[in-house]
Predict the structure.
Amino acid sequence: MPASTFVKVNKHYQITIPADARRHLGIKSGDRLLVHIQDGMMLLIREPENYTAAMAGLLKEVWNGVDAPDYIDQERETWTAKPVG
């Protein structure tokens, strides 16, 4: 499947997703797609069947070099700390 292809917007502002793209991504009739605008582009993302599974590991790079147990301990300490002032 080519990485890019053209589609035409019809008079009702609709497009048809090319068959190769539908097969490659497993998009079926009735699937819901999220329309996301980013940096002048429109991205169509299939709605996941399981949001928890789809989001697992998201932004994991944020935690590189962070010791999770220490971080949790520090957060818990703020729960019982007395307010300053």
